[in-house]
Amino acid sequence: MTIDYKKYADGLVPAIVQDNTTGKVLMLGFMNEAAVAATQELQKVTFFSRSKNRLWTKGEESGNFLLLKAIKVDCDNDSLLIKAQPVGPVCHTGADTCWNEKNEGNDFLQQLEQIITDRKNNPSGDSYTSSLFAKGINKVAQKVGEEAVELVIEAKDDNRELFLGEAADLLFHYMILLQAKGFLLSDITAVLKQRHLK
Fold first, then answer.
1. How far apart, in whole angstroms, are the C-alpha atoms of residue 148 and residue 174?
2. Residue 194, SS3 per DSSP
3. What SS3 class is residue 136?
4. N or C end of the chain: smaller count of CB under 10 Å?
5. Pseudo-torsion of CA 85, 91, 96, 97, nearest 10°?
6. Does 99 have pLDDT greater than 90?
7. CB 147 within 8 A of CB 171
């Protein structure tokens, strides 16, 4: 990846941040070479703050980090597209984006995945999902196994409601397992797409 930092007098290139799951544009910041290097090293989006005159990792005070998924440079090598997974609201006002838009995809699974991410990163004492993460990977994996067995049992009968309920339980716990292992549904989709090309 070649980035032309010299194109701008201050050595800063614009960096558009896009939600890796929903595709929504979240914010615009500026990066110099050190900010790009810090972003890659920390795996958290880091800008050069012109007001603070220093490197600034988004979320360093609020905890609302942008977890790096990819960095792409445009055709002129002078602007960046950062694909990230937001942890909480992006704007300092508390909005999902700096344009005061809701960061919702068309797919409810994307919204559910963001809720699971929030329960993982901001544990709540009354959250079942948070409590499952707290019990560790073995318990999470065990729950997926239990739900899979229950789905298989219901598949042998003709009760539509029970079958769909168990299918939903399995998918929900599978999504928790993915995040417990550090992955998202988009990672699985990428594998399926790659297999489809073969």
1. 9
2. helix
3. coil
4. C
5. -90
6. yes
7. no
Helix (H, G, I), strand (E, B) or coil at 100: coil
Collapsed DSSP state (helix, strand, coil) of residue 27: strand
Q: How far apart, in whole angstroms, are the C-alpha atoms of residue 75 and residue 193?
A: 25
Tokens of 124: 């709540």
Residue identified by tokens 């910041």 is 29
Q: Which amino acid is at 47?
A: F
pLDDT digits (tens, 9 = 90+) for 46-83: 999 999 999 999 999 999 999 999 999 999 999 999 99
In the chain, % helix, strand, coil (3-state, to 5) comes to 45, 20, 35
Residue 80, Cα to own-chain centre: how many angstroms? 18
Write out the two tokens for 112. 């559910």
Residues sharing a CB contact under 8 Å with residue 155, sequence separation 6 or more, in sequence order: 163
Domains in the chain with CATH codes: 5-86 (3.10.20.810), 108-197 (1.10.287.1080)
Q: Beta strand pairing status for 80-86 and 13-19?
A: parallel
